[in-house]
Specification:
It contains seven helices and seven strands; from the N terminus they run H-H-H-E-H-E-E-H-E-H-E-H-E-E. Helix 6 links the parallel strand 4 and strand 5. The protein is globular and about 55 Å long. By secondary structure, the chain is of the alpha/beta class. It folds into two domains: 33 residues; 180 residues, Vaccinia Virus protein VP39 (Rossmann fold), CATH 3.40.50. The protein binds S-adenosylmethionine. S-adenosylmethionine binds next to helix 3, helix 4 and strand 2.
């Protein structure tokens, strides 16, 4: 049985340091061989497996929240693009979704994805495209009101062309931001993955109008050869 996620120690240090070499096999593309080699040698992949998380992405939200502290007991959280569920697993103890921390407020977590997601105790998960007409109202209905946190680790499918992919993820992120403007309550937080590379300036400008604080952060667990980073916008000014 997988161990219960602890949500602690986000360093990734102290792990086995034996490099696994993967031989190229007939029929396997070089890029797949490289991916496999990287996975087998990635301490975060090994740690996710050992600690029962559904993916290495779990460490990114831990590190982001360790710095910005928005997953607090009682928070109402919407996780856009939540499959396979690593971010949900991290959020559960932090917002006290299972009510295990006595005397602390109990949080609510709602996950959404295009794909079916295996259930996570303490979360309500729906298969939905967040860009569907009325998805924001539907989410508020499910939540029974507004949210304190809208977080997104969504990635648009890759075209293999760096600039096209960058523009795709920025527009996905922009759509997620407009979704957050409809769903967040005043004071709320929006966290989203973006790719560094030029076109994110407009998004930053928009977020600065809507939130009192906007920061960009690359968590240590984000691969150094990836241009991904996370925008963390806090203090939603509310709908005017
Ligand atoms: C990188 S994964 C998220 C990983 C997740 N944070 C975790 O820790 O397990 C990105 C997800 O975004 C979802 N996604 C992409 N576009 C979406 C959309 N328009 N609506 C809902 N989900 C979407 C994909 O199906 C995919 O499962």
């Amino acid at each position: 049985m997988a161990k219960k996620p602890t949500g602690k120690n986000t360093s990734g240090r102290g792990l086995r340091d034996l490099t696994v070499k993967v031989k190229t096999a007939r029929g396997r593309r070089l890029s797949s061989t490289r991916w496999l080699q990287r996975q087998l040698n990635d301490p975060y992949v090994q740690r996710a497996k050992a600690e029962g998380y559904r993916g290495r992405a779990a460490f990114k939200i831990m590190e982001i929240d360790d710095k910005y502290r928005f997953l607090v007991p009682g928070a109402r959280v919407v996780d856009l693009g939540c499959a396979p569920g690593g971010w949900l697993q991290v959020a559960v103890p932090r917002v006290n979704a299972l009510g295990e921390k006595s005397g602390k407020k109990v949080g609510t977590i709602l996950g959404i994805d295009l794909q079916e997601v295996e259930s996570v105790a303490g979360c309500d998960i729906y298969q939905l495209d967040f860009m569907d007409e009325g998805a924001d109202d539907q989410v508020k209905e499910w939540l029974g009101g507004g949210a304190d946190v809208v977080m997104s680790d969504m990635a648009a499918s890759s075209s293999g062309h760096k600039q096209t992919d960058h523009l795709r993820i920025i527009s996905l992120c922009e759509a997620a931001a407009y979704f957050a403007f409809d769903v967040l309550d005043e004071g709320g937080t929006f966290v989203a993955k973006v790719l560094a590379g030029g076109a994110e300036g407009e998004l930053q400008k928009l977020l600065k109008q809507k939130f009192t604080k906007v920061a960009n952060f690359k968590p240590p667990s984000s691969r150094s050869d990836s241009s991904e980073k996370f925008v963390v916008a806090q203090g939603f000014r509310g709908r005017t």
